[in-house]
Please model this.
Amino acid sequence: MNRLLYSLLPLLPLVSLAQSGPSPQRPALTIESIMQDPKISVGTTPSAPFWSDDSRTIYFNWNPNRAKNDSLYKITLSGTRTLSPSKPQKVSPAERLALRTDPSPIYNRAHTQRVFESQGDLFWIDTKTGRVRQLTNTVDAETEPRFSGDEKRVTFRRSGSNLFSIDLTTGELVQLTDFRPGAKKSEPKQNDEETFLKAEQLRLSTVVTERKERKDEAERLSKRNRPKRPKEIYLDDKQLVGQQLSPDGQYVTYRAIKSASGAKIAQVPNYVTESGFTEDIPTRVKVGAPQSTQEFFVYDVAKDTVRTLSVKSLIGITDRPAYLADYPKAKADTAKKPRPVTYSNVVWSEDGKVAVVVIRSGDNKDRWITRLDPATLTLTVLDRQHDDAWIGGPGIGGSFSPGSMGFLADNHTLWFQSEADGYSHLYTVDALNPGAKKQLTSGKFEVQEIRLSNDKRSFFLQTNEVHPGEQHWYRMAVTGGNRTRLTTMPGANDALLSPDETHMVIRYSSATKPWEFYLSPVASTAAPIRLTDSQTETFKSYSWREPTYVTIQARDNQPIYARLYKPSQPTGKAVVFVHGAGYLQNAHKWWSQYFREYMFHNLLVDKGYTVLDIDYRGSAGYGRDWRTGIYRHMGGKDLTDHVDAVQWLAKTQGVDAGKVGIYGGSYGGFITLMAMFTTPDAFKAGAALRPVTDWAAYNHPYTANILNEPQNDSLAYRRSSPINFAEGLKGNLLICHGMVDVNVHFQDAVRLSQRLIELKKENWELAPYPVEDHGFIEPTSWMDEYKRILKLFEERL
Model:
């Protein structure tokens, strides 16, 4: 599952809990218990599974003994028709060092050979016999091994820059590129006087002339007899990225990135340091700062030439964004210059005859899927997706990634994902004869992951078609049609197929149960076999609540999906939790990354609070319109969704509308501020954790998508930044912020504090955390923060 932007995604917390108390069924939860080290309270879930080549061993990281770090474990499968798993066994250091299994295997087409990198060297393995051959043994780091198109050689990068190949039969090592930093040194150019004197010397002296001729001839012979070497390519002041060799070895494609000049880097002061001095942490530029630029090059190996790709022919490349209509005085670009673009890595067909490059406009409002002819440098558009807001959604990719994409067995039918119909779905198009694309999936759901089968006859798909809060895997023919559902457990199912595609390791969780591994045959309806058991006895002793999944009608008649926690003895008090952003949801049926908050909600319900958690406008899982519902106005529909939800609570759940609190972190902190400032009668108290207070101070990749650039769309920033509405505060506000937060800088909280002081507001407080970044780490920090939040709600609601 792609989570392209770190943006406002909260870092995955280390969780905690414990309990002691009166009820034998539900012992009393405390802040200390639920915020302690997660290894003690919840347990450590298994992660990062991968298979052996023979599909008989599953490896994964795990820490059931609650050590300082995870260790590598394995489960071996025995049997023929029905595989029987062993108990998990810890892999010894010696066995791990000798392990020849790779979490991201690179196979040849028949899956009989595999290449991998280990400790900076390259290895080849026969997957049937297990025979291993070391290909390199150098002090340089060799990475990214790939089979050549004819599978007779392995290509790779050395020291991150140049491409090499090694012949699997002869062992011959060939350097394919010669990228060099800086500029090529040239001979000093002669002035007119020097040119005249040289010509005179040659005219007046036969000896000098003859010596020059002999010297020139010797240089010609030396150059002619010199072994053929790749062209020297100087990068000047640019950074090299994305070097790729075509399957037939005829072309090398690469990108060169030039950093923007004049982009000021924000510094975060760190006060609690080992040295005893305040030390600055360099972080990032702010939104609207000058951005780096990209160029795409094709090196023709046979012709020894390098040429630059032009995008001037792309339809719509000079279009102005629609939002500029709100600024009639903004000067139009009469020259109609092409917008800056970014390029993906090249997606090659296996036969090397078709190359596809995904090009995105710098403002992220257009994505062109193009066929590149490397010989002529012409581009043929296979698909253009335009969005007046911004291009996004599952499988769509980012600046360098093409997204979910590849070729079918015919080597010219390209499959890809697009939000063309409002949801991210699977499409195909003929890259050699582009015309109408074919849509293979459709409906009000998202295709969230795609894998093409080994024989290229089927797709394995993860979708949320059962419910926006469930994830299941399906199998479907590459021509489309009916899908066969492969997973059955309600919740989230992340599947990893075995190399022979007969079995799946399923990483599964439900709303009340953290992630565990299960084994399931691909072609069977048998119940999955549980492989791991990770929860502590403390965790198991409490009867964690399954939330009620409800839909609430928003004022524009759109359904808001939500999780509701109802107390057995309600007090009329309610708390609304706001999840963070990026592209995220929390009203789902699996174990939340907000597990601390989930346990805190159980504590609140024990005290008689009703708790609600909604997937507001901008949340993941609901398609393009919901995703872009916050375009140019964060704190608009995303906030009114929360206000509508509170009204629903008052009308249907017996909640006192005057006793409602709100809290959340990151984007959730931002919404809390907007709620307390712009809808102060809806919420009596709010806790804003690490909140953005002014979007003009946040990062570029996330913010420019949603609000454009502040110098070009000041209206969007003015109506979206809480600091502009601080005078509206009526209720009681708690602000908590880590002082070494390199994502949302502590400066945001400081500037808002000064604003509240100048407005003479008294019903607020700021709790700074000197050693914490965006996502807290220390249990004592979590404890202090949530004691303050609980105190706020207990005293003010």
